[in-house]
# Entry
Amino acid sequence: PRLFATGDESIHYIDFIDMIKARPNALKYSGIYTLLPSSWQDYLHTLDKESFRNAFHVLKVILLEEDMEYADTVLQETRKHDALSPEAIAITFKRLKENRLIYDGAIVFSSDLPSYEVDTSEYNYLMGGGNQ
# Structure
C-alpha cells in the first residue's frame, strides 16, 4: 500500500511468512519477529518444527483476511480455552469470523418488548414432579 506520511514503513507479512515456514530458525533474524505480538513470540517458542510450520500457515491465513492485532486476538481467545495447537487457533479464527459475519450489527432488540414469564408447572406435572 502507498504511504503518505514521512518515515512510515509498509511491510507485507505474507512474504515473510512463506520464508519463515521454509526456514523456522530464521525467524529471530527476520524483520517480522519484532513485529509479532509478544503472545505470538512466546507461543512460537513452545512449538516443535512441524507445529511451528502449521502455526505460521494459520497466521498467514489470518493475515490474508485481517491484521496482526486480530491475529493476537485469535491467539488470546484460543488460550482462554486451554488450547494451544495450530489447529485450535485455526478453528478459533473460523469461529470468530463466522460469529462476526453473522452477528455484526444484525441483531437489534427493541426496547419496548413485553416481558415474558416461563411457566413450567405443566411440564413438571407431566414429568411427575408436582401436582397440578
